[in-house]
Design a protein that fits this description.
binds 4'-deoxy-4'-aminopyridoxal-5'-phosphate; CBS domain; 10 strands; 11 helices; 338 residues; Cystathionine beta-synthase; six-stranded mixed β-sheet; alpha/beta; pyridoxal phosphate; 37% helix; four-stranded parallel β-sheet; transferase activity, transferring alkyl or aryl (other than methyl) groups
Length: 338
């Protein structure tokens, strides 16, 4: 018989898939690390497992306890799967900008979800960080994972994502491109890859409305960089402990519109139904295409599955309301055309 002991053993070892049509203007080979093959359909399963294993090893959470996390959805999904197998309860705080699908999914896997306002500062008592922190002090035998500052996050990628990419590319990778939120993925994977070959370039994808790019370039935390944006999962209004700026060579900002449109192209032209930030990552790579040569091997690490966004970027009405898609011509428009 061939089987896994439980679903958590299926985390990792995701495929690399070559892109064709959407990168026809890029001279390099572009490979996607398709993390949707994880059981929670996102890369975050890796670090959720690791944060929990490390907390268990330290005795920070005991059987029957409650896992608390502030999450845009994917980390919560990974934690909920692990909690179901290991017998923990889960409470997730999230923000009101996250897609309804993500919130419904967290509830489907047994999580209690508290939706907090998006546009308040991180230290506001109503923010999703503050609510998670407070709950962890009030609920006995609870553990707040805090993916932003918990370094088990980036260690998970140092131990798994990095070695997988190095092995799969036979050490030929020249560039890694990935969206940055907590910074765990880019910092852990990037550190591993740079240890194997210091010439590998690590490019982080940021959003307009986030502090990363400016902070990386100037060392200045500029509050003027912070304003509301629509892209989910990347960009921050804080500097998380997990971001290791030393391993990141550059940040590139991508607009909400360009990320959304590229995600749609990936689905329709490459058969890859992926999340919003995957579109941002590929759109960001296209913005940097002049820096690449035919010998380069680029790995774009994508975070999550497109099913989480069917009511958003894959919904034409939602796209049109935000000015991301032209309105379709209707019969009246045609009749009015001269
Ligand atoms: N994309 C999505 C959809 C995410 O959920 C996240 C996690 N916030 C990221 C990108 C960024 O990953 P990381 O937190 O490892 O920087």
């Amino acid at each position: 018989m061939e089987y896994y002991e439980n679903i958590l053993h299926t985390i990792g070892n995701t495929p690399l898939v070559k892109l064709h049509k959407v990168v026809k203007d890029i001279p390099a080979t572009v490979l996607m690390k398709v993390e949707t093959f994880n059981p929670g359909h996102s890369i975050k399963d890796r670090m959720a497992m690791k944060m929990l294993q490390d907390a268990e090893a330290r005795g920070d959470i005991k059987p029957g306890g409650t896992i608390i996390e502030c999450t845009s959805g994917n980390t919560g999904m990974g934690l909920a799967l692990a909690a179901a197998v290991k017998g923990y309860k889960c409470i997730f705080t999230t923000t009101d900008k996250q897609s309804k699908e993500k919130i419904d999914l967290l509830r489907a896997v047994g999580g209690e979800v508290i939706v907090c306002p998006t546009n308040v500062e991180a230290d506001d008592p109503r923010s999703y960080y503050s609510v998670a922190r407070r709950l962890s002090t009030e609920i006995p035998n609870s553990y707040w994972c805090n993916q932003y500052d918990n370094l088990s996050n980036r260690t998970a990628h140092y131990e798994s994502t990095g070695p997988e990419i190095w092995k799969q590319t036979d050490g030929k990778i020249t560039h890694m491109v990935v969206g940055v939120g907590t910074g765990g993925t880019i910092s852990g994977t990037g550190r591993y890859l740079k240890e194997q070959n210091p010439d590998v370039k690590i490019w982080g994808i940021d959003t307009y409305g986030s502090v990363f790019k400016k902070y990386h370039e100037t060392g200045e935390f500029d509050e003027k960089e912070i304003y509301p944006y629509i892209t989910e999962g990347i960009g921050e209004d804080i500097i998380p402990e997990n971001v290791d700026f030393k391993v990141i060579d550059r940040f590139e900002k991508v607009t909400d519109k360009d990320g959304a449109l590229m995600a749609r192209r990936l689905a329709r032209e490459e058969g890859l139904l992926l999340g919003y930030s995957a579109g941002s990552a590929v759109a960001g790579l296209l913005q940097l295409k002049d820096e690449l040569t035919p010998e380069d091997v680029v790995v774009v690490v994508i975070h999550d599955h497109g099913s989480r966004y069917v009511g958003k970027i894959y919904n034409d009405e939602w796209m049109r309301e935000r000015g991301f898609l032209e309105r379709e011509l209707c019969v009246r428009d045609l009749l009015n055309m001269k």
